[in-house]
Structure formats: C-alpha cells, structure tokens
# Entry
Amino acid sequence: MAGVAYRAALCRCGQSKNKPFCDNSHLKAGFEDYGAVGEKGDGIDADGGKLTIKSVPNGPLVLSGNFAIIASSGRVAWQGKQAALCRCGHSKNKPFCDGSHNDAGFEAD
Ligand code: FES
# Structure
C-alpha cells in the first residue's frame, strides 16, 4: 500500500496504562484474540489525509479519515473512513465495538 505513512498499535484489551496505545499489558492480562477481521469495510477514496481518533468515555475509539487495519501478515484486512474500535476487550466483533463495554463496566477517559 503506497500511501501508508504512519502506523499505530492501539490497545484492544482495556488494560494499557497508555491508552489509546498498546503498552503490552495484554500479555500480563492474558488477553487472547486471534485477530480475524470479518468485514472488509467500505473502502477509501484516497490514501492519506487527516485521521481523527476520539475516545468515547468508557467506550470505544472512534476513528474518522482514510485508514486501514493491517493484519499481522501485512494483508489489508479492512479499509474505510469511520469505525468504532473496541478498547475494552469484551466485544464479540473485534476489532469493532459492539456495545459490550456497557455490560462489562469498562471505565476509561
Ligand atoms: S469498547 Fe469494547 S465493546 Fe465497546
């Protein structure tokens, strides 16, 4: 993918002390997820541009802009312009939020 200039590892387990970024706390927490992305997304019109990441208090990260989710194999697993990503570790549709943070009592700024 020619337009990729930045990458970030975002916390998915809810345990990072440096949210929204991963600090490897998932290892100590025993978080396990095989990382499959079941959807391909709506696609993007162009590479690059402004990416906005907003954290919803006690909920997901909402990303807006052209972005891709890249599998550990390097394959583009998902592309789109907006998504709510789970950061509590409880979604049944990871990496996307399915509202499970409410029942889990997830708390984060
Ligand atoms: S943030 Fe995990 S389900 Fe919403």
Q: What stands out?
A: The radius of gyration is 14 Å.
